[in-house]
Specification:
The complex is a heterodimer.
Chain A lengths: L1 H6 L3 E5 L5 E5 H4 L3 H6 L7 H5 L1 E3 L5 H17 L13 H14 L2
Parallel strand pairs in A: 1-3
Antiparallel strand pairs in A: 1-2
Chain B lengths: L21 H16 L8 H13 L3 H24 L5 H5 L6 H35 L1 H11 L4 H14 L6 H17 L6 H13 L12 H28 L2 H21 L6 H14 L2 H5 L5 H6 L3 H14 L4 H32 L8 H40 L4 H17 L3 H16 L5 H17 L3 H17 L6 H15 L1 H26 L21 H4 L10 H17 L13 E8 L2 E8 H11 L7 E2 H8 L3 H12 L7 E4 L10 E4 L9 E3 L11 H30 L1 E3 H12 L7 H13 L3 E4 L2 E7 L2
Parallel strand pairs in B: 2-6
Antiparallel strand pairs in B: 1-2, 3-5, 4-5, 7-9, 8-9
Helix pairs in contact in B: 1-2, 1-3, 2-6, 3-7, 5-7, 5-8, 5-9, 8-10, 9-10, 10-12, 11-12, 11-15, 12-15, 16-17, 16-18, 17-19, 19-20, 19-21, 20-22, 21-23, 22-23, 29-30, 29-31
Classes of the chains: A alpha+beta, B mainly alpha.
Organism (chain B): Ascodesmis nigricans
Pfam family, one (chain B): Cullin_AB
Family (chain B): Belongs to the cullin family.
Amino acid sequence: MSAEAENDQESVLLVSNDGFQFLVKKSAACKSPTIRSMLDKRSNFAEARENRIHFENMTAPVLEKVCQYFYYFDKYKGMKDVPEPDFISPELALELLFVADFLDC
Amino acid sequence: MNRGRGRIRPPRRGLVTDHVDFDDTWGILSQSLKQIYSKDASALSFEALYRNAYKLVLKKFGERLYAEVKMLVEEHLKGVASVRVRPLVPSVMVTGNTALGNTAAIERRLGGTRFLEGLQGVWQDHQLCMGMITDVLMYLNRIYCLDRGLPTTYAVGMDLFREQILRHKTYNIGRALNTVILSQIKMERDGDIIDHGPIRSCVHMLESLYETLEEREDEKVYLTSFEGEFIDASKEFYLKEGQRLLQECDAATYLRKTETRLAQERDRCTKSISTLTLHKIEKVVDEFLIEKNIRAVMEMDSGIRFMLDNDKIDDLKLMYMLILRVDPDAKIMKEMVSARIVEQGKDVNSNLQNAPAEAASTAPGVPSTSAAAAAAKDEKAASSATAMAIRWVNEILMLKDKYDKIWESAFHKDKSMQTTITRAFTKFINELSVAPEYISLFIDDNLRQGIKGIDETDVDVILDKAVTLFRYLSDKDIFERHYKTHLSRRLLMNRSLSHDAERQMIGKLKMEVGVQFTSKLEGMFKDMDSSNELTTEYRQGPGADNKIDFSIHVLTTTYWPTKVVGQEDKTCTYPTEIEALRESFSAYYLKRHNGRKLIFKPNMGTADLKATFSGKKHEINVSTYGMVILLAFNSLPQGSSLSFSELQTITSIPTDDLRRNLQSLYIPAKTRLLLKTPKSKGIDPADRFCINDSFSSKYLRFKVGIIAVNKAETEKEKKNTDEEVERDRGIQIEACVVRVMKSRKKLNHQELMMEVVNQLKSRFTPDIASVKKRIEMLIEREYLERVEGDRETYKYLA
């Protein structure tokens, strides 16, 4: 899967600190400026080269929510009267806030 | 969502609560940043770097991190300056030694290019690395810098670049950069081909850097350290260039080179240096190549005068365009064009004044004591005056055409330029005192013969040209006077080719200056029309004397110029048949128009006589006086003669007229109906005249030309005219003053003057002295008085 992702320029592989992998549409993931910078081909960091980002500070449940948010945002981008996101559980709320700050989104 | 049930989980350990050691973390970070500088980031994990910075900021180490990064970048740049840039700085630049040969110049250029390219490389690397570092430290920038209002690490990096590289304390890199760029530009200006790329990117670098961290637009390093020097160098260059061009080139080349220089500088601003400088460098060229030298260029032999004379439209256009750059009014151009027009106009005028001298010297030497000779000379002068008038008008029109063309194609039809040209024409035309007469003569000539066989639109063109010239006249009243004279002659002597054209002309004049100007002229036409009707009606009416074919012009005295019609009543004793006719018509006319006075003017009419000479019948057209003279011989036995004084008694024609009419009957061979003894040109009272029985002519009909009532004015007439004009103007000035004062009641001297001059402008330009004189006269006659206590103000007395 990782090899596939490496060649797939449309997607990026996001990995949690406990080893879970999420293959996400790159355009959606780039909602986060942090991720966008990581994937910048000009700087050519390891992430950009491998097309794979390992998040040392996120567990799988958190990263999953992050991915859900990327898709949610991507889907309703630029639209009006969108439904409220229903995937945020209160237990994770505070943790997600930290992550949001980290990812700047 | 089950809000109530879910418990908010505290953030996981590792984010907040972990202990972070700054030195350890910074050690990792700084190592990685150095790796970024060595252009090998592929092994680095962005996430790790970012996370480390994130942690530091979170743990309130932002300030330290910020300072450490700054130091790191500074250290790095110091290394770059000494290792990468220093060796590239061209030694000649540093020492400033410019006295070098040709090979050195090439080397210098190559060295310069190498330096620029090297610097460009350093700059690009720095930009890239700073970009990456800033990305990695985004959290620092986003949280710490924003909170404290500090510039981002990127801005700090740029600031350090200026400080450590361009402004390096010992390497003079910034200086060298300026010198290299300027010397490359100098080479390009001198005609060498240079590589724009490196210059462009170095300039771009200067444009991206600022003097301070505030990054104010007007403090770009480009503006603060490069542009000024560039402008100064350019000034120096163009000062010399201007002097060189002045010495080496003719005017047209100078203009073209200036145009090229402007284009080059514009090009340079887009291709190698910044468009920010466009306006400023254009100003330098404008100042040193145009403003400073343009007068000298215009005054060259090949300058504006040459261009105008030879219709160098393109050169003029270019000159005008360039001058507009430095002076939107193009004052100097107007000045010079105007001066040249006046000069050319004066040439035309003075050619004219030289011409009569020639004419007089070529005239046959006749004894000047005799009256006939004097008269002949006068006539000659008059007809040559017509020729001169036409030549003058044509030359002026040619000049006008020429400048119209130049105005149209070189001066973009600029309105104020047109005014200038018009003023110049007005100036020299009015300097020629006979101008009004000449213009009238020109029209006269065209209406009498010039427009024969020309179709209507072309006639219109000719008349329009005349009107154009008329517009330039300031003494329109004098023109009116002449025009009236000429028109009346055309009408009375039936010399006009087309009444339509006549009316057209009057229509045009009316459009130019209004009804008041043409009312008398129109009155003359009315008289002619009503006279025709009157003649027909009389001849059809009862009691008409139809033995003699007869037509009459009844003229209203005020419409017609006294000069033509004659002031004094000229009488003569008519032969009985004619006298009867005269009485019959007078009776008829006075019955129709009671209370009018009818005066006959025998000096104005003509008569057709039937006569037989050498067995051949002829119809001879003579003046009324001529007819009276010839009929006097009718009652005499064949072969007898009459003396001058006898003729005078019989006809009672005034001496001058009698003399002139007799001359036309015995001097020209073609119409020699009388013989005089003794045979000489002059006339003594005792000289005798008899019918020339041996006269013959191949024409059945012919005309005895009265020694023409001259076309142009002779000296004597001119003096009369001048006096009349003066008198007329005086009356008009008085009328105008009264008109103004009547409506304003009280007026200050200056205002009154202005008002009067303004109102009379369309007819003539009154001179101040005569207006003053007229005001004095009006005060004397108690139309006006000076206001007590204020001598400058007048009051109208009802």
